[in-house]
Design goal:
Elements: H1 3-7, E1 11-13, E2 20-22, H2 24-28, H3 34-38, E3 44-47, E4 52-55, H4 65-69, E5 75-77, E6 85-87
Antiparallel strand pairs: 1-6, 2-5, 3-4
Length: 91
């Protein structure tokens, strides 16, 4: 089974606001944009024309890989509010 197939089986209860808050000024000077590469769910996309990071927080798996890999430490990261975010168990 591919990672894409596995990701399609995960259930989410998205919040109305993001728990991921990048500092776009720091992101502009980042050469690697590593968050795009390490995120297994494809949450991050650099928009070159707008010079900003698009964050599709609704798909976040809450693994923290982006926060660890971010070379400029520009990613504000918190767990989503209670009952929001990825649902690892069906209850």
């Amino acid at each position: 089974m591919t990672i894409e197939n596995k990701l399609s089986t995960i259930k989410y209860s998205p919040d109305t606001e993001s728990h991921l808050r990048p500092d776009n000024e720091k992101c502009k000077s980042c050469k690697s944009k590593i968050c795009q590469k390490v995120c297994p769910a494809g949450v991050y996309e650099w928009l070159e024309e707008e010079q900003r990071l698009l964050v599709k927080y609704e798909n976040c798996l809450e693994c923290g890989a982006c926060r660890i890999a971010c070379e400029s430490k520009s990613l504000g990261w918190e767990y989503p509010k209670g009952t929001k975010g990825v649902l690892f168990k069906n209850g």
